[in-house]
Amino acid sequence: MDLLALRYFQTVARLEHVGRAAEELRVAQPSLSRTLARLEADLGVPLFDRHGRRIRLNRFGAAFLRRVDRALTELDDGRRELDDAAGLERGTVTVAAESLLVLTEPLRTFVPDHPLVDVRLSQASAARMAEQLRAGDVDLCVTSQPLSGNDIRSRVLLDEPVMLCVPAGHRLAGRGRVSLSELAGEPFLATRPGYWQRALAEHLFAKAGLELDIVCEGDEAAVLFQLIDAGLGIAFVPSLGLRADTSTTVVWLAVDDPECRRVLSVAWRENTYLSLAAQRFREHVSAHFHTGTGPRS
Fold it and tell me: Do residues 57 and 48 make contact, with C-beta atoms less than 8 angstroms apart?
């Protein structure tokens, strides 16, 4: 049993698919299958139930995975702690976010001040981010939804109103404020399910007893205003988006509902060593929003 075999097992157990695990690990599928077979032979029990090409973690595998997760987390934490203790002014910080747009301004000042820190970003839903934190795949998450789990801690970065954006000439464009009831039947632009804008729209419409008509779902924030301007639909957009809106034809309206807000937070896993690079990034992002650089409500 070696460390590489344990990391291979951890990835296959998470994905429950040898082919996808081989792609993620960048190894040949036959080699991965042989490594798993040797691990099971060493342990003396099967770790997966196999049904053709499908595999499922069995009770032996689930019990072993809990120990493997704990052992690999301790080893990774130990490596980061030794690097920090040695005074190395370098490191890697991995960050997941629902929208990368919120990180562009903090990165503009962090990267030049920390040239030896390797910052790696990815985009994910709230559910996926919680999984990544627990698996140790990311150090920090920047999220507009609470991440589930008693082992996850968070710090609020920004609490801001979410507004309604409509094209010029829209029937509501001349209004300073709108109620949810006035949005019945309107075509909406939203993100995919699992992301905060979609979750907020679904919650508000369900509360108002209205049917939400999604005509476009995606993750390209930069094109949102062009789609609104084109007349495809309207959208809920956080106040932070005012800084990114360069159009002159999109109209911003306040929404008469106290729950039409976005709470942006940075989250990390408790009782796991957070590298010096990750700690510095967390503090930098917090300072960016708390010193008036970002908009406040």
Answer: yes
